[in-house]
Structure formats: structure tokens, C-alpha cells
Amino acid sequence: MSELLRRHASRAVIIALVVVLAALPLYVGAFWLQLGLFVFAAAIGAIGLNLVTGTAGQLSLAHAFFLAIGAYGYAYLSGTATSIGGGVVVDGRELPPLLAAALAVALAGLAGLLFSPIAGRLRGIYLGVASLSLVFIGQHVLLNAKDITGGFYGRNAAPFQLFGFTFTDEDPDLTVLGVRFGQRERLWYLGLVLLILCYLFATNVLRGRPGRALQTIRDSEIAAATMGVNVRAYKAWAFVLSSMYAGLAGVLVALAFQRPVPDYFNLTLSITYLAMIVIGGLGSVRGAVIGAAFVTALPLVLTHYSDHLTFLAQPGESGVGAADFAKYVYGGLVIVVILVAPGGLAGLFGARGRQTGVTTDQPDPTGPSSSVMVKEDPL
Amino acid sequence: MTYFGVLVINGVSLGFIYGLIALGFVVIYKATEVVNFAQGSMLLLGAYIVARTHGDLGFAGAVLLGVAAGAAGALVIEFVLVRRPRHADPIALAILTIGVDIVLSTELTRRIGQDVLSFGDPWGNDTVDLGPFTVPQARMGAMAVSVGLVVLFFAAFKYTSWGVATRATAEDSEAAALMGIRRGRVSMVAWIVAGALATVAGVFLGTAPSPGLNNSSNLTALNAFPAAVVGGLDSTGGAVAGGVLIGVVQSLMDGYNDNLSFLGSPLGDVSAYAVMLVVLLWRPSGLFGTREVVRV
Amino acid sequence: MEPAPAASGAGSPLLAVSDLAVRYGRAVQALRGVTLAVPDGGIVAVLGNNGAGKSTLLRTISGTCRLSRAVIEAGSVTFAGRRLTGVDPGGVVTAGVVQVPEGRRIFGRLTVDENLRAGGIRQRDRTERARSRDRVFELFPLLADRRKQRAGLLSGGEQQMLAIGRALMAAPRLLLLDEPSLGLAPRIVGQIAEVIGEINRQGTSVLLVEQNAEMALELATYAYVLELGRVSLEGSVEELRRTDQVQRLYLGGVDPGNAGAAARRERPALRRWVANG
Amino acid sequence: MRTRNPYQAGTRRTLRAALACATVVALVAACSTKSNGGGSDKSNGGIKTGPGVTDSTITLGVLTDLSGVFAVLGKTVTQGAQLYFDKLNKDGGICGRQIKLLVKDDGYDVQKAVGLYPDMESSVLGMEQLLGSPINAALKQNIETDKMFTIPVSWASTILDNPNNMIVGTTYDLELINGISWMVDKGMIKRGDAVGHIYLEGEYGEDGYLGSKFAAKELGLKLVGQKITATATDVSTQIAALKNQGVKAILLTTTPTQTASAAAVDAATGLNVPLLGNNPVFVPQLLGTAAGPALEKLLYVAASFEPYSGDSAGATAARSAFESKYPTAVPNGGSTWGWGGAEAYATVLKKACDNKDLTRDGLQKAFRQTTSVDTDGILPSLDYSNPGDPPTREALVSKADKSAKGGLDVVQPLKASDLAKKYVAPEHGKGG
Fold first, then answer.
1. Does A375 touch chain C (CB under 8 A)?
2. Nearest-by-CA chain A residue for D113
3. Which residues of B touch A117 (CB under 8 A)?
4. How confident is the model at residue D38 (pLDDT cuts 50, 70, 90)?
5. Topology of D172-303+395-422 in CATH?
6. What is the pLDDT of residue A246?
7. Contact call for residues C170 and C62 (beta carbons, < 8 A)
8. How far is B138 from chain A (nearest CA, A)?
9. Chain C residue with minimum CA distance to A374
């Protein structure tokens, strides 16, 4: 009975949240909308990383690379050949934006698939370090494959279009309840819808057979194998799915930036994504969203209000400014979460705590798939 | 040919510095199964102390203090953070060290700002002539000290009780515990050693031909990652060999970039990671690492 | 029931385990109130099937049960009048109790010498250490010949000797042996049994956990049978030999056609091979 | 989300207002502030005003790096600009309005910059400073859409094609062309010599390389390029490669740390050839390092603005203002340039005021009418009437010198070489 009630309450909260988010563009200014776009993109990316790192327990630092593939894939496929400065001309495929976006996501998935033989061969921390190399190789390619990426200068991403409706400031001019709907307002809804779809898909995946298989792999690959889980195939599949999520996040980033530049897709971005899922709570889809919102919004919001936050050094003063402070907070939170609150923010806020399984550092010793039982069965 | 020789010498001298950092990764990994992503910050911490105190203490005194500080910093990380969740999964602990790195490197780079901090080292910009090659004295010093430290390390690892205890723990921590080997102590010493080695590496990274310590010196630890992994994360000899290999590869790729222009440029940084990826495809546990023993 | 100090008959026992209850996680109750004693200078055997709680018992004594996240719910372990429960493994070794783990668990990448050093690591006194080493080489001359060899290259029997030798380096007063006969040829098992007897004659008490009841009952003077975490039977070896249960389950004497019992022994052995391979 | 309160800063509507708008169609435009956030042009006392302009103030945006890798540059440039506007405000401001800087720190992080830009967009008339090549590239689209008149802290010729950008000074390629011409004049290098160029991956380095390529071709030099990443701190491999080619001089478009390493290796390996760098290669802190003596012996810097120690009236005024406000700070040329840039921006604002049009379009128009910005000698006279062309082709050469304030001493005053006058970059003429 109370379980039923709780589920209803939880659903009500989520619906209320969605309604609020849908209404927000009517009230808030450009800064918050831009921030929201970043949050939607980050949340989609974090859900993806969470599938591979939180649920399947495979540390990946390559997320920035897959985001870059999504962003540049979209910019290239939807773009036209243009001169972008410094005598460089970028090529483009001029595909319809929707098709370009879908192909960019597929491309990111393909990259994940190509990497998965390596991922399948490597265990634990070796995979984490190997995935680092994708970020460096990716940066190198972004800077050197100038006729596709535009090099350091980046390249424009074509505005998104859906059945003739463009996500720009005009064409058609759109006014809703007296509020002019420009590019940011329109992209806001695109991001929101995509996030909801990605969220639902991920929760379904995790609730079903694949989710259980991934958790088993995380707890013990050997145990999973003896239980008939095709470990290699599932690991590859998790990587592909995770990179597709990253690819979609990349497409959104390209749309939000209007002009993706290589500098963005660096190791720091990968680490930021890792921080998101740890802070939110490893293994939890809701946690990934909460973590993404927190980590993305914190530095921007602190800077936005830095005039009022007297403990922060104001621009030009020496001392700890908003940017540094944000880093202390989220670096510190990563530490604190792993030390004392393995469920992350989702575990603290959520009524039922961890939603889709336990965290990596506390395998439940009573579970049938747990490594502890297999390892220490007191025979 | 002389040019090739110069590149190799540059690569080897840099490679030994990578080797020192990589050795730190490996010794921590062996003792605790944790990959320490905070190694770059530890390097920055020790070197920063040296740079700030050499005026008062002289170079040697500052280095001693810096090494002590680097070791103490590592010990604090080990004690407060890594030891507490004793049974935590190594991946969670690796992420934890990433958190430490974010906080520590933010603070240190903020303090360093745009300064280029020198160490007041005795070598300055003097050079040594080795036949047709001219090598900065500081790099010769780096090589000599690195070789010395590596030999010292290997001797300690081979012959001291700590070395035996660490290797025993790395192989079978429960059996080692049954022998009365305290894992906590093994792990403490490993972190101290890693912190000290990182500090020494940091000082050499900031002496000639580099002008000093700056706010991106910690990023060099990112080159020591491929070094440690190429050699094998649990192979101490592999760390040094991997460091030298990566140093030489980077130097050669940069030096012959003109002939490899189809690969784009610059090639130095990316080549380290490309080499690592190739090695891992071929040998998933690195060149000298042992294949992961799977216990059910 | 107060356990009889058995053969020695002298005063309080060297090791006393009383009412020990140990649990893994929430569900698995490994020990449910075990009480046993090892007299000074004696050899005591613990028999039992897989899952009876034998390994948990040894882990609890040696202080390593925390490594596998077991929780001591009740009871105590006392050694030479000193409480061992809550003492870390290093402290237990210093107190004079050393365990030879099941499956030998020698350090294969270390040399024979280094394995012995690891065993003697808590022995600070140099001359004591040398004396222990001499004693080990006396017991196992073969190890002396191979001291520079990597331990992983030794044969199974040699590895078992090394595992025992390694434990002796800490000069224990009580040696805990976890299935020393496991996976060894009968001839080797005989040799190992002889050495254990010799070690005991030199003054070290022994707690021997075995599935190989034949060997255990040969060596020991007093024995316990563990079943599902409880002591189901105990007594002097002569008494136990005569019980049907021990006959049937552990010695396989009475009913050679009992396929069930045979299978029961087969399976666990197989499982361990998988586990340690 | 932290955004549920509709009354938070940046929010100008309420639900009620929105509903009212829906019902009163005629009022839609008036109540929808977002739709005209980019240019709510009003007429005020005969002066048309745009966003960021009130009766008493003109607010300008500064999006800079105060906590990242270029924090020191961002800080001193901002300080220089603020000092100039302080002086200007004391003298009565512009159009009777005080100039206010709205400063935001992006920490040289692209996402932060893109996220903070909309925060400023509606409350500033233009951007007095936008630091960082990747950030300028990422915001290019926004700047164009919003017609945001901007001074980029970058001297790459690639940004000339953005008509909203006001480059203060000449571009990296022209700095080097002038510098190389000067070296030839001084006899440091001659036709047929090999010259090395170590340059950074990215806009800055590659723009410098454009200039050296041109100069080498025109002057019959053999150019040997070595590209490096920004995080490299040891350039001994690159110097070895250049030594192998027998170079007679080395050009640098690098970070200061790399400059010091280059000087140290250059001297230490006995190569001892002169070094010529672009204006960002040097910070005075380098002279305190072990590379100090080598730098003093070998390093020349080409720039289109005076160093901190410059003796023009403008540089002197900037210096004395800086010294009295920040007596303990380590000075560098950033504040001097910041002062000059602010003066250039103020020149355009004054022209817009004369035109009675303080809107973004008005600023744009005034910008193109600006044919000579006079910064009292900090910079050469700047002419912005030809979109896509650099405002000046002049550069000066200074030498590393410990005894000079700010560490640089001018050895060749501002001058445009014949080669510089002839040079056409790929972007030239493309603006507007």
C-alpha cells in the first residue's frame, strides 16, 4: 500500500517537474535557457556514461571523444561547404538536419563498436586508461582534419529542422503567450523531449534483462559468464549504447554552441562527466540527471550570482573566484560521495534510494550474483 | 645520424623522468590496486614547495623539504581517503583520486598563476659535451638521479622487508595478511614513495631545458600514464622501460614530424597514447605486466 | 558442554574458542556457536564437509575474516589467556598463531627465500629469524636446494612444504593448517603428515582442518566434527573412529558402495580446482 | 533546477504579464522584453540608445579569463581598461554617461563562456574584451547575430572577417613580418639563410606561421616550421631539429614558458641564434628564471603596442595609473594594452555619441567611420574604415631587459616595413 503510494508520489513529482520545465521558457531569460540546454545535453550524455561505468562497471574516460563525434558528425553531415577563416574551407554533406542528427548518433555508436574489441579485451582499470587515449587521438584529429572539422577554428552547426520547422530565431516567427520563441526557447523543448525519451529508454533497459546482465558483469565477470551471460557481447553493447547517448548529447551541444570547437572536447570534459555520474549516484538514471544538472549548473550559477556571493573573490581580485570554487565543490563532492554516500545525490534525495542497483563499491554480499559470495563462499 | 642521436638522448632523458612518475603509479597500484590519478597534483605539490622555499633553504634543503611535503601529501591522501573505504572497489577509488586531483590541482594552479617558478638548482643552463652531443647538465643530473633512484628503488624492492611485503601483498593480499604483513603499512609506504618520486620528477621537469614550474606542469603526469600502462601497471621494471620508450617515441615523432606530415602535427603527445593503444591491443596487460590473475 | 581439555589434561587450553557465531552479510550464517579447544602441545583436528564453516573458523582465529566481510556476532577466541577476537592478522601472528591457508597460496612470483622472508616478516630479531630458517631447511631440505627458485615453479607437494615452512618462519606456538592434503598425491600426503608430526614434536601445537579424515585422525589426538556451522560431534580420536557417522562420511569404510558420499567428495574438489586455477 | 522562482535576476516577466500579453495582442511586442533583448532601441534626449545604455551609464561587457591558464593576462588587461575608464569617468564620461564594465570570468572554458554570454548579452552595449581564441571562435555566431561590437584579446588575422571585431593593433602575421624585416635590416639574417619557427597548434600559432611563410618566401629564406602543443614545456627536441637544419634565427609563436625553454636550449646547446617572438611570448616573470640571462641575450619581441616601459605619453599615463593603484603588482604589458584598447573603444563610443546613436547599429556605423584612433603613442594610429583589413601594419621590436620596467625595452619604434605593406592575409578584405 505505502509502496504504491510512494510510487504515485514519485511519479507525481516527476510529472510536476516536467510541467515546470515545459513552462519555464515563458518566464526565464536567455542565460537560464542556455544553461538548461547544457544541462539537457549533459544529462543525456551522463545517462549514457552511467550505463557503461555506473551499471556495467567499466570505467570510461572516452566520453568526450564520443560527444565530439556526435557534434562534429552533425555539423559535417548537415553543413555546407564554407570558408571558415584562415584560408580553410570545410566540406559538408548538406543532409536534412534530422537525418544528419540520426546519422551522427549512429556514427558515435559505430565508434563505440570499433572501440569495443579493445574494451572487451581489457579489464577494470586498464580499460579506463586505454579509453583516455581516445580523447587525445580525438583532439589530434579534430585539430588536423581541417576540411571536416575546421581545425582549431571549429565549424558552424546548421540549425536544426523538424518537418519544416526551424529551431532558429525566425522562420517562422513564433510567439507563444506573448513570449517570442527564439532559438533558445525552441531548442529548450527539443532538449527536454530528447532527455525524457532518453531517460525512459534507459530506465527500461536497466529494468529488463540487459540491465541485470550488466550489473552481474560489474559485480563479477566470471560469475556473469558462468551464469550464461555473454560478457563480451554485453560489454560491447553497453559501449555502443553509451556512445550513442554521448553522440546525441554531442548533437545537442553543437546546436547549443552553434559552433563546436575542439577545445571543448578535452579530457576535462570526460572527467566532468565522470564527476556527474559519481555525484548523482553510480548506477542510477535519475542520479545521472541530477548529477549532470548539478555539475553543469554550479559554475555558471555561481558566476551569475558572484556579485552577491561575498565569500568569492570578485573579478580582478586575488583569492578564490567562482570558477575555482565550483571546482572545489564538485571535486570535493566526488570524494565525499565515494567515501560516505555511495548512493550519490539520488540516494540522498530519492525516496527509494538507489533505483537500479547498488554502487560499485558496495556489492551486496547477499545477492546471488555478488562477487563476494562467489569469492568467499565459506566452503 | 647525429640528429637521430640528439633526439634519442632527449627522449631518454625525458623518459627517465616519466619513468619516475610511472614508478609511482606502479608502486601504488601494486600495493593497493588503485590507479592514482592524483599523481600529477602530487608532483605539483612537492615541486611547488621546492620552488617556494629554495630561496630560504637552498636547493638541497628545499628539495628535501619538497620531497617530504610530496610524501606527506601523498600520505594524507592515502590515510584520509583511500584507506577509509577499505573494501571499496578499485574503480571507485580511482575515481576518488580524480576528485582529489581536481581539488588539489585547482588550488595549486591558482597559486602558481602565470608565474614560472624556478628552483634555484645548481645546474642552471650549463651543458655537458658528450662527443658530438651537447646535453644540459640538468638533464644529465636528471638522468643520473633517476637512474640512482631507480636502482635504489629496485634494491629496496628486492631486498628490504618492505619490498618483500609489498610484492607478497600484490600477489595475494590475504595470504600476506596471514603472514602478519600489514596491508595498511605496505600501502602507506607505497604512497610515500610515489609522492617522493613525483616530487623529484616535478623538480626535473622544471629545470633546464624547461624554464621552471608552471601551471601546466602537472599535465606531464598524463604522459606517464601511457608509460606505466605500456610497461604494465604491475611491473616496476616496465614502468621505467615504458617511460623511456614513451620519451623516445615522443622525441622521434616530434623530431621527424616533417617526414610524417600526413599524420598531422604535433605528434608528440598523441603518439604516446597511440603507442599505448597498440600495445594494449597486442598485450592487454602491457609489455611486462602479468596477466590479471582471476580468482573466483 | 565444556570441552574436555582432552589428551594433555593440563590446566587451561592454549587456544579456546567459545560460542563463536559468525555471519557473512545478512543471510549467510557460517558459524552458529562453535566451542573448541586446542591444548598446549597437542594436535587437534576439525573435520567437516564443504560449507560446514571450517574455513570461517580459521579465518576468525587468524583475524582475516574481516577481509571477507564476515561479522563476529558472538563468542570469543582466546589464545594463551589473551583475547584474539578483534585483533588484526598481524597481531595474531605476533601473538604466536599462524595459519597455512587452504590451497597453499604461496607467492608464486617470489623466490623460495623471499617467501620465507615474507613469513618471517614480523620476526624482528635477526638471530631468531636465522634460527627459524635453519629449522625450516632442516624440516624441508628440498627448499634449501631451491631457495633461489621462483616458488611458482615448485610442484604441488613442494609448494605445500613451502607454505608450511613460510608459516614456521614466524615461530608460531600454534599452527593452523587448512586442508594441507588438498590436491596432493597420497604419497606426498604421507610426507606432509610426517612433517606435521615432527613440527608438533618440536613443540608447536597444531589445529588441523581437513576433509581427509584418514590423515587427520592419524595425526590428531582429539577431533571435532563441524556440520552447518555447529560442532556436531567431538571426542578423542579413538572414540570418533568408532562412530558410524565418521566411518560413513569421512572414512568411507563401512559402506564402500555409498555413491552419494563419494560424489559429495568429488564435487567440492573439482570446484576448488576451478577456483584456484 | 534552480530556476523555479520567476522573480530571479534575469527574469523580467511574470505569469500574469505573459497572460496579459496573450490577451492584448497589441501589447505583445511591448511586454516581451526577450524578443528585443538584442536591441531595444529607444530615443532618449535626442540620442538613440541600445541595450546597456541608460541616462547615466553605458555598460560594456568583459568576458575574460581570471582563473584559468591566461588569468594573468586577463587580469592585467582588465585592470588597464578599468583604469582608463576610471580616468575617463572622472573627466565626465561619454555622452554624459559613466562607463561601467560588467566583468565575468569564464576561466578559459568554452562551455562557461558560451553559457555566460547570454547573461551579458542583453545588459551590455558591446564587449570591451573577449579573451581567448577558442572562445572567440565558439561565440562567433552569437556575436554576429547580436551585432555585438567586440574587442577580442587576440591578434589573429582569422578574426578580421568578423565585422563586429575591433582588433586593437596589428595581427600576429604582420608582427612577425615586420620583425623579420627588421632582423634582415640589422644583418642578423640574410637571403639564403635557414630560419626556424616554433609555433603553437591553434589560431595564434598558425597565424604567426602565415606571416613567417610570407616573409621567408619574399626574402629568400628557408623556413623550418615546428608545431607544438600549448602544454609542452620543453622544446629541446624542436630546437635540436632546427639546429640540425642550421637555422640562423628562430621565430616563436609560443607560450611564455616555451619561450624561456627555447632561449635556454638555444644558448645551452651553443646554437646561440637570435629569437624573435610575437607579443604574447613574453611575461616579465621569465627573467627571474634560470633562462633569464639567455632571454636577455637572445630574445626580441615584435608587437604593435608599447611595452609597459614605453615612453610615449599614453604608456606613461597607463603606467603611472597602474603603479598608483597596484603598487605591489608585477607589471606587464597587458595593462598598457588594456588601457590602449579601452581608449580605442572609447573613441568609437564618442563617435557614436556624436552621431547621436548609442545603439549596436550605431556603434557599428561609428566603428567604420573611425579612421584614426589616437592612443597617445601606445599604439600606432588605427584605421577601421576598411573592413577585413588590419587597422595598422606597424609594429615595434623590443628586447628582453631586466632593468626595464615590465622586462622589455624598445629597440625599434613602431614602423611598417615594405614587406608588411605588401602582405595580404587570406582574410584581408573579407570583413563586412
1. yes
2. A300
3. 281
4. very low
5. Rossmann fold (3.40.50)
6. 97
7. no
8. 30
9. C275
Please answer yes or no on whether B174 and C94 come within 8 Å at the CB atom.
Answer: no
Q: Which of C84, C99, C121, C273 to mutate to test the interface with B (most CBs of B within 10 A)?
A: C121
pLDDT of D244-279, one tens digit each? 899 999 999 998 889 999 998 898 888 899 999 999
Do B125 and D234 lie within an 8 Å CB cutoff?
no
Assign 3-state DSSP to chain B and report helix, strand, coil percentages, each to 5. 75, 5, 25
Q: One-letter amino acid identity for A319?
A: G
Note whether C111 contacts B: Cβ–Cβ < 8 A: no
Nearest residue of chain A to residue D144 (CA atoms):
A258
Average pLDDT for A315-342? 82
- Kindly report, residue by residue over C42-87, the tens digit of the pLDDT: 999 998 887 788 888 998 999 888 777 788 888 999 999 899 888 8
Extract the residue ranges of chain C whose pLDDT is less than 70.
1-11, 26-27, 249-277
Residue A2's pLDDT is 64
- Judging contact as 3 or more Cβ pairs under 8 Å, the answer for B and A is yes
Pairs of CB atoms within 8 A across A/D: 191
The per-residue pLDDT for A330 is 86
Task: Give the mean model confidence (pLDDT) for residues A152-178.
Answer: 80
Domain range annotation of chain D: 21-170+311-383, 172-303+395-422
**The pLDDT of residue A208 is above 50:** yes
pLDDT-flagged residues of chain B (< 50): 293-296
Q: What is the DSSP string of B195-227?
A: HHHHHHHHHHHTSTTS-SB-TTGGGGHHHHHHH
Of A221-235, C187-201, C213-227, D131-145, which range is least confident? A221-235
Query: Which chain B residue lies closest to C61 (C-alpha atoms)?
Result: B178
**What residue ranges define each of the domains in chain C, with the CATH number in brackets?**
5-276 (3.40.50.300)
Structural domains of chain A, with CATH: 2-348 (1.10.3470)
Predicted local confidence at residue B86, as pLDDT: 56
Q: Looking at CA atoms only, how far is residue B279 from chain A in angstroms?
A: 10
Residue burial D182-200, b: 16+ Cβ < 10 Å; e: rest: bbbeeebbeeebbbbbbbb
Cβ-based neighbours of C261, under 8 Å, separated by 6 or more: C248, C249, C252, C255
Cell of D418: 615594405
CATH 2.40.50.140 fits D21-170+311-383, yes or no: no
β-strands D299-303, D395-400 pairing:
antiparallel
- Yes or no: domain B2-282 corresponds to CATH 2.40.128: no
Which has more pLDDT, D198 or A162?
Answer: D198
Chain C touching partners, 3 or more CB pairs below 8 A = A, B
**Cα-flanking dihedrals φ and ψ of residue D232, to 5°?**
-65, 135
- Return d(Cα B201, Cα C140) in angstroms, integer: 46
Lowest pLDDT segment from A59-68, A181-190, A265-274, C239-248 = C239-248
**B112-143 residue pLDDT tens:** 877 788 888 888 777 788 777 777 788 888 88
Q: Fold match between D21-170+311-383 and D172-303+395-422?
A: yes
Spatial separation of the C-alpha atoms in residues C34 and C48, rounded to whole Å:
13
The model's confidence at residue D99, banded by pLDDT at 50, 70 and 90, is: very high
Could you write out the DSSP letters of every residue in A357-377? S--TT---TTSTT-HHHHHH-
Q: Are D229 and B269 in contact (CB < 8 Å)?
A: yes
Asked if B292 contacts A123 with a C-beta cutoff of 8 angstroms, the reply is yes
Query: CB C67 to CB B174 under 8 A?
Result: yes
**Residues of chain B found within 8 Å of residue A136, distances taken between Cβ atoms:** 269-270, 272-273
Closest among A13, C237, B247, B180 to D234, alpha carbons compared: B247
Alpha carbon C266 to chain centroid, angstroms: 21
Cell numbers representing residue D30 in the block: 511591448
